[in-house]
Specification:
Pfam families: Glyoxalase. With about 150 residues, the protein is α/β, with parallel strands linked by helices. The protein is about 20% helix and about 35% strand. Strands 1-4-3-2 form a four-stranded mixed beta sheet, with helices on both faces. Strands 5-8-7-6 form a four-stranded mixed beta sheet, covered by helices on one side. Strand 6 and strand 7 form a beta hairpin. The radius of gyration is 16 Å and the shape is globular.
């Protein structure tokens, strides 16, 4: 059986603000839609499921995020995820300039949880609290042969 990662889905409170954040970081919008109906109820397991969605893609064409804003049933607000909680943890991106990526994030009111770390001279990385409380890891390879690997 062949298997590949298709995308990571993230429910957000403000679709447009979240799209703006990720497109400023370099992702592109592949498409948008509004989904509802019996097929959506069945697929998601929620009666009356109705959401606005957007599919974004990384510049290399390999990574995709599906963002969705629920119209019905109403979205449930939760406390922002902590790095050590069980479940969906974070979304990670390799960047070529972490300082530039952090400046872009800051323009959206999104800041590191603590700061920028140096992982054994291999990566500079930081966890940022993004839109809707999403944890976003930004990692810059410090050694050219490590570009594209995830920390």
């Amino acid at each position: 059986m062949d298997i590949r990662l298709e995308n990571v889905g993230i429910a957000v409170r403000d679709l447009e603000a979240t799209i703006a954040f990720f497109t400023d970081l370099g992702l592109t919008v592949l498409g948008r839609d509004t989904v509802s109906g019996e097929w959506a109820d069945t697929a998601v397991g929620l009666d009356g499921n109705h959401a606005r969605i957007a599919m974004l893609q990384t510049p290399d064409g390999h990574g995709r995020l599906e963002l969705f804003e629920y119209l019905h049933p109403a979205a449930i607000e939760t406390e922002p995820t902590l790095p050590n909680e069980i479940g969906m943890h974070r979304v990670a991106f390799a960047v070529d300039d972490i300082d530039e990526a952090l400046a872009i994030a800051a323009r959206h009111g999104c800041h590191p949880l603590r700061g920028v770390a140096d992982y054994q001279g291999v990566y500079k990385l930081s966890y940022v609290r993004g839109p809707s409380g999403i944890i976003v890891m930004l990692a810059q390879a410090l050694q050219p042969d490590r570009a594209g690997e995830s920390a």
